[in-house]
Amino acid sequence: MALLAIPLRFLVLNKLVYSVLAQAVGLRDVKARAVVPNETLEHLFSRYKAKPPDSEISHCAGKLGWSERKVERWIRQRTSMTRINKFTKFMECSWQCTYYTFIFLYGLYVMCGKPWLWDILYCWYDFPNHSVDDDVWWYYMISLSFYWSMTFTHFFEIKRKDFWQMFFHHLVTIALITFSWTCNLTRIGTLVLIVHDCADIPLQLAKMSIYSGHKAFCDAVFAIFAVLWVITRVGIYPMWILYSTAVDAPTIVPMFPAYYIFNSLLFTLLFLHVYWTYLILRIIAVTITKGNVEDNRSSSDPSEFSHDEEEKKNK
To answer: How far is CA 296 from CA 50, 292, 301, in A?
Structure first.
């Protein structure tokens, strides 16, 4: 299913839906102009990326017989080649927004009739003799296939500051889904899934809005996302789900080795939530002080916003 999701995304939805939507909101798939290949400058760029020291620029300029300004221009153009444009970013967010909207609504449909949604202790009563309904099976398989597909494509997408944290998050999520499935902890697993999916919908909408230049809508949706994130990821998740796995479960279920691995993965996920909450609070602080929402995860280079300003000055 993960291998099917990748062509569905890139060959069908990107070409027939998301690219049309991106053009409708005013985005264009503009490619950066390629630089003239130069082994000396390529080596300089591989070492220092977009910010080589002045001494290295002067050294390369003398070695090539170029002016320092020409070397700086080459570095700027080479840096532009590594940046993914807003058109592509918009399509990436559209895919994630589509998935999270579908899986959250499907999760609500699956869970509304399950007793453990209303009383979490049903996750532990009569464990491990729990049957797995067909709708829960599909809920699990679709979720697992999505995270496998995101893991496969992670190294080909936008590289953000939390690149490795996000990759680690995908692995932890896959491990959690796999462990809970193998140990028949699907009831608590479905609760973890539905709590995590809802906040990602406004997050992706906010990103799509800022890439398409709709600042007012972005600010409103990002505010909704921030509230949902705090409520679900650092509120409901630790105080309801983790409390039940750490406090309720040992009093009802005989402990077994895989339980400790499962619980450790759940707490690892919480640590990632705390880290991302810190980033969200930074974005809110920037919004209040500077008046615009920035994605602090966008790149290890200067933000796309400052890059746009630099390009305007150069022109």
So the answer is: 18, 12, 11
How far apart (Å, rounded) are the C-alpha atoms in residues 77 and 182?
A: 50
Count Cβ atoms below 10 Å from residue 45 Cβ, excluding itself: 19
Neighbours of 60 (CB within 10 A): 20
Residue 8, CA atoms < 13 Å, CB-side half-sphere: 13
Candidate from 27-31, 158-162, 184-188, 238-242 with smallest mean pLDDT: 158-162
The sign of the torsion formed by the CA atoms of 165, 166, 167, 168 equals: positive
Question: What string of DSSP letters covers the chain?
Answer: -HHHHHHIIIIIIIIIIIHHHHHHTT---PPPPPPPP-HHHHHHHHHHTT---HHHHHHHHHHHT--HHHHHHHHHHHHHHHSPPHHHHHHHHHHHHHHHHHHHHHHHHHHTT-HHHH-GGGGTTTTT-----HHHHHHHHHHHHHHHHHHHHGGGS---TTHHHHHHHHHHHHHHHHHHHHTT-HHHHHHHHHHHHTTHHHHHHHHHHHHTT-HHHHHHHHHHHHHHHHHIIIIIIIIIIIHIIIIIHHHHS---HHHHHHHHHHHHHHHHHHHHHHHHHHHHHHHHHHSS---TTS-SSS-HHHHHHHHHHH-
- Give this prediction's pTM: 0.82
Q: How far apart are CA 131 and CA 138, in angstroms?
A: 14
User: What is the predicted pLDDT for the residue at 310?
Assistant: 41
Q: For residues 23 and 86, give the distance between their C-alpha atoms in angstroms, rounded to a whole number.
A: 11
Mean pLDDT computed over every residue of the chain: 88
Q: Phi first, then psi: give them for residue 252, nearest 5 degrees.
A: -115, -40
Give the pLDDT score at 296: 52
- Main-chain phi, psi angles of 7, to 5 degrees: -65, -30
- Looking at residues 19-43, what average pLDDT do you find? 89
CB 179 within 8 A of CB 262: yes
